[in-house]
């Protein structure tokens, strides 16, 4: 983590101060990559089981404020929490380069908050593109340097605060937080690899300080391998420019999932077929967490209690299950084009348009969430971001409005990303309890998505990366 020269922590650097903080926009370094493309669909998402594919996208303008409410809920229920966040954390934050560059930003948004996230009808501002950046600007070279900036500074401080909120004294050591952002998954992923992962991974020292109930929660999450309740898909400033990000936010309604040998896309792998059948990919899962569905309901989204039962009872699902085997093979099928606004690019369209990039990015992020059984997805290019919720029962991505990171006064960055970590943890904790209950049930009572079984992915034929 980059630090400025020694500085004295002013009295006002505290939790409220941190929750008003937005980072300054990042700018291109002189040697910033000029690449503007994004990867095309690959084996894992091209072969994703139909019951796990993204089917619709809904933009929810109120999503970010509702996500952020959890921090207020924590402090209301446990007034001692603000005192459990150590001053040493704020001292480190105050001397970090990312804060020093944004101190004027914090001072500018003191007092009552106004404005907010851009709604679907408002225009965002183009991120700064400075070819001759000054020493007072945060510069990046490419997508990887954006990831590192988040993991080592912006996201790191939010994870430290969230650790203290969730676990009290056991999570209050900034040098040993229970939540950590990393660029590597806990287990090797040869396909559908996200860029950044939230890890729930206490050290032996912090585990020994935890309340028994918290230890049980962590053990349960690890036993069910819900290691990464939040994943991030990063794009560089050039690949995720304003037009591309606005194209993502313009989706509404049905989403046409791109399958192998559809629309001109093919996996090109020997694993296209297995045992003479079309190979299917995915990961078994369970019901959506009630706590997460309550966020959506608070935003005005109507979710029926029958959503899960209806998806279970569909003829397509039952036919699909009856033909599936323990090895994960199944019948070959092609998904017909949807009638909504989000359409697969036609075969003859060869140019990498902004709309096509947006389709690829949404499919890529959703597939990564499936692989990790994650619920929350961050789509970000540094200065602009969306936060998405994967709803399993309806196969819908509920997407926030486009968040302009440096100027969001309604849900500033420090507050929002701390809240996102807490929401992800609450989701994983509830769903791990659900899996415990499912294990006690007869197999014929298991929901369809929990009965899914897939073979291990081919690791020897594909280098580790984003396939």
Description:
With 467 residues, the protein is an alpha+beta fold. The protein has helices at residues 15-18, 43-46, 63-77, 81-84, 87-95, 97-100, 103-108, 143-167, 204-209, 212-223, 242-249, 290-298, 307-313, 315-323, 354-372, 413-439, 448-451; strands spanning 26-28, 56-60, 138-140, 179-182, 196-200, 230-234, 253-254, 273-274, 277-279, 329-330, 376-380, 384-391, 396-400, 403-404. The protein contains 17 helices and 14 strands. Strands 2, 4, 5, 6, 7, 11, 12, 13 and 14 form a nine-stranded mixed sheet that branches. A three-stranded antiparallel sheet has the order 8-9-10, with no helix packed on it. The protein has one domain. A hairpin with a 2-residue loop joins strand 8 and strand 9 (277-279). The longest helix is centred in the last third of the chain and has 27 residues, at 413-439. It is 37% helix and 12% strand.
